Amino acid sequence: MRKVMDCRDYPSEMNCTLAISGEEEEVIAAAAQHAATVHGHEDTPEFRASLRGMIKDEASQHA
Questions:
Q1: 1, 33, 40, 58 - which has most CB atoms within 10 Å?
Q2: Within a 10 A sphere around the Cβ of 55, how many other Cβ atoms?
Q3: Residue 9 CA from chain centroid, whole number
Q4: Alpha carbons 35 and 55: distance in angstroms, whole number
Q5: In what order do the strands lie in the sheet with 3-6?
Q6: Which helix (H) or strand (E) covers residue 31, if one does?
Q7: Which residues contact 42 (CB under 8 A, 6 or more apart)?
Q8: Is 33:18 a contact under the CB 8 Å cutoff?
């Protein structure tokens, strides 16, 4: 099942609206890179573990 992470679920001062979807490992990698470059987070194994807890299943659009 595809996964999604949406910055709108985690409001910040930047009012970021980026949403990332794909296979779990793709989403984690892209979200970590985005969080580091845009939001100033450090991309560490611990940070990636916390991201893993934030991703959600993508709602099926093929009902």
A1: 58
A2: 17
A3: 10
A4: 14
A5: 19-22, 3-6, 56-57
A6: helix 24-39
A7: 36
A8: no
Looking up tokens 């930047």 gives 14
Q: What is the pLDDT of residue 53?
A: 94
Beta bridge partners of 22: 3
The tokens for 54 are 């934030």
Q: CA–CA separation, 15 vs 25, rounded Å?
A: 25
Q: Where is 19: in which H helix or E strand?
A: strand 19-22
Amino acid letter at 49? A
How, if at all, do strands 56-57 and 3-6 pair?
antiparallel
Name the average pLDDT for the chain.
92
